[in-house]
Amino acid sequence: MNKKILIIGLGITGMSCLKFFLKKKIIPAIMDERKNFKFIKKIPLYVPCHFGSLNRDWILNSQLIILSPGISIFNNLILEAQKKNIEIIGDMELFARYNTTPLIAITGTNGKSTVTNMIANIMKKSNFQVSIGGNIGYPVMNLLSFKRDFYILEISSFQLETIKKLDIYIAIILNISQDHMDRYPLGIEQYRNFKLRIYRNANICIYNSDDKLCYPEVFYNEKKYITFGKFSGKYSLSFKKEKVFLKINNKKIFNFNKTKLIGVHNYLNSLAVLAVIDILKISKKIFFKEMNNYKNMNHTLKIIHKENGVIWINDSKSTNVNSTKVALEYLCKKKRIWLFLGGYDKNCKFFLLQKYLQKKNNIKIFCFGQLSKKILSIYSKAIIVKTIYEGIKKIIKLVKFGDIVLFSPACSSIDQFKNFKHRGNEFIRIVKKIHKCK
């Protein structure tokens, strides 16, 4: 590869690309808008660097740009490079050009990590050699070092923006709702179009039949399409009184009430998982056993503390309105909910949550972060707090037996925290500390 290569963005993704090239004895130039960042000391002195801004000359004189997911393809300098026909790809496309291992790829607004982990756990217990990567925190370029039967990838819309030919054996779209509207100036249709790219070079497409946004724009004869949904699809649910069953082709085969799964959204996630399991001809007994024992992931509707009849739940992974709505739908029959909302505004339609909240008299809102005033403007009874700590201190004096404290912010965390994990861990730490000191 004798091109002038430039890597923009030196987070874990950019660093994985840099290591890949250096291993091949190719020295790219690197660039980051930050002056100081986590990996700066790990960069060899012989690598050309520009930090603190985007260098226009470097960008426009490159022949291949590797763009990290955090850098928008709608950045003016990136658009200028596109007009000059400079090739711009991300780590997913770079990975695609060297990968020979079959891929199972999952995208969607919510539930990606849960489904990725469920599939990986079941496949491992069925003696498949698998590794997971992508948006889940392990860069795809690092996967190339491992010989596996399958790679299981969680892919974000940001990563899908720059793919051209990612060959996928099984592609899944779980759901699509408003998220990252600050990134997509043309709104949810633009966001959806990037999500649909996952189907382009997939052999088998699995999608949510309840969600029209998940439907492929074109159905090709050479591809296989499999559906799942709450009431329709090959894999669906059946509700009888308080029992929920899994159905295949309208035949009940499993009772979700015997599992530790929380919420209908997780039942839907498991339908997508079962579709994959059937394709791979894995025994359903392994699937049933895994579902019976599966617990919600950290930062996803996870009970972190119980005391005096009050339950504290961490749902920090809720970074969009629909995710919080799902949590409230599951918990709405409870006596009273003390809800934490707030963070960085991604231009999502927060009023969609407002309509839901107005029907519920048992939800008390505490808001924090950049979005506090906007939340207050549409929900006048909300209480603004500067920090999570301040909110918890106030709530702990007000809660009564049977109440739930739900930390489900519906926003990104980047105004006050490194990421949703940092935010969730802070919530857990403060809750534990305050109860210990009581």
List the helices and strands and how they pair.
Layout: E1 5-8, H1 12-23, E2 29-32, E3 49-51, H2 56-60, E4 64-67, H3 76-83, E5 87-89, H4 91-96, E6 103-107, H5 112-125, E7 130-134, H6 140-143, E8 150-154, H7 157-160, E9 168-173, H8 188-195, E10 202-208, E11 224-228, E12 235-240, E13 243-248, E14 251-255, H9 264-279, H10 284-293, E15 302-307, E16 310-314, H11 321-331, E17 336-342, H12 351-358, E18 363-368, H13 372-378, E19 383-384, H14 388-395, E20 403-407, H15 420-437
Parallel strand pairs: 1-2, 1-4, 2-3, 4-5, 6-8, 6-9, 7-8, 9-10, 10-11, 16-20, 17-18, 17-20, 18-19
Antiparallel strand pairs: 12-13, 13-14, 15-16
Attribute tags:
six-stranded mixed beta sheet; UDP-N-acetylmuramoyl-L-alanine:D-glutamate ligase; single chain; 438 residues; six-stranded parallel beta sheet; 15 helices; Protein-Tyrosine Phosphatase, Chain A; alpha/beta
